[in-house]
Design goal:
This protein is an alpha/beta fold and 316 residues long. The strands form three sheets. Strands 5-9-4-1-2-3-10 form a seven-stranded parallel beta sheet, sandwiched between helices. A five-stranded parallel beta sheet has the order 12-11-13-14-15.
Length: 316
């Protein structure tokens, strides 16, 4: 086995990939190589499971992130790793498809699970399909195997003392024909709910936009964030699409998810599979959300919510 490589565009994503990368490497009897942009993260990445770090040289301001594709692909072709993991972020997915096309490699997108078949010496990947109603198992026959992993699918690898490893720098890429004229950060109206530990999610059970105040009061009382189902953001436009949870929205992994007036269709439930505790309030005892909920209250949200708010505000 020639190794498992991880390519990440942020510190958090790098440590998450190091977790599963280290696990797969130990099972396959191989090593982990982390490809990073920030030199200050090199030693920490080694302490968290990397056996070697390859640093990407800095790019001129007018060069896009994709300028790294050629030197990274050349290095992958030379070193011939078994598995290359990238985060399923916008930048990560873009990098993955361009690299896979250049390398002629198989790419499995948005993997929720990875395993290693010791008999056949292959990596077995799982991902959701048919709107989250089925799980597809995939084995790539090309080398390297490539996969993208949604953020927070795995916990961050923890640091261990005494680990050492080489750090080297990749050659500087040639100037890309694509030039960056201007960079403007996208303005977001809301915080990133994928990092929230408590999420109060509102669904179509709410009658009008003004009633969101109840959910916001509860979220504030428990130190949580507001999320919503697709109709709330896309049809009614009560909340920004950044807060939409589900197959076509964001995937979340809070410690507690509370669905308020959420029916629990499979497209939404797909986005909350990683929640440690799922709770729901719905007056329909047959609502699908109760089939996946750990805790449920059958009742009118307009009766239950004020009581919850009062109770939680009394404890803070």
């Amino acid at each position: 086995m020639a190794g498992i490589w991880i390519l990440a565009d942020s510190r958090e994503r790098a440590f998450e990939l190091l977790n599963i990368g280290r696990e797969m490497a130990d099972r396959a009897g191989t090593r982990v190589v982390a490809v990073l942009r920030v030199r200050e993260q090199a030693e920490e990445s080694i302490s968290r499971g990397a056996d070697e770090v390859i640093l990407l040289p800095s790019l001129p301001a007018d060069q896009p992130y994709e300028a790294y594709i050629t030197p990274i692909s050349e290095e992958v072709r030379k070193e011939n790793p078994d598995l290359v993991l990238l985060p399923a972020t916008v930048a990560g997915k873009n990098m993955a498809v361009l690299m896979a096309a250049r390398l002629g490699a198989g790419l499995v997108s948005s993997c929720t699970s990875l395993g290693f078949d010791e008999k056949n010496k292959t990596f077995v990947m799982e991902r959701l399909m048919y709107g989250g109603t089925a799980v597809q198992k995939v084995v790539c026959t090309t080398r390297p195997t490539m996969a993208t992993i949604p953020p927070r699918t795995f916990e961050a690898a923890q640091p261990l003392s005494g680990r050492r490893g080489p750090i080297r720098e990749l050659r500087k890429p040639s100037s890309s024909a694509v030039k960056v004229i201007e960079r403007r950060p996208k303005e977001k109206e809301t915080k990133d709910i994928t990092e929230a530990r408590v999420i109060i999610c509102v669904g179509r059970g709410m009658d009008k936009k003004e009633d969101l105040t109840l959910a916001k009061q509860l979220a504030e009382a428990v130190g949580g964030a507001i999320g919503c189902t697709r109709p709330i953001a896309e049809e009614f436009h009560w909340l920004p699409e950044d807060l939409c949870i589900g197959l076509s929205g964001v995937q979340v992994k809070p410690d507690l998810y509370l669905g308020i007036g959420v029916s629990g269709q499979v497209q939404h439930v797909t986005g909350i599979r990683g929640a440690k505790v799922i709770a729901a309030i719905n007056k329909d005892e047959n609502a699908p959300i109760f089939k996946v909920a750990d805790l449920g209250i059958i009742g009118d949200l307009y009766d239950v919510m004020p009581k919850l708010v009062c109770e939680m505000q009394g404890r803070t």
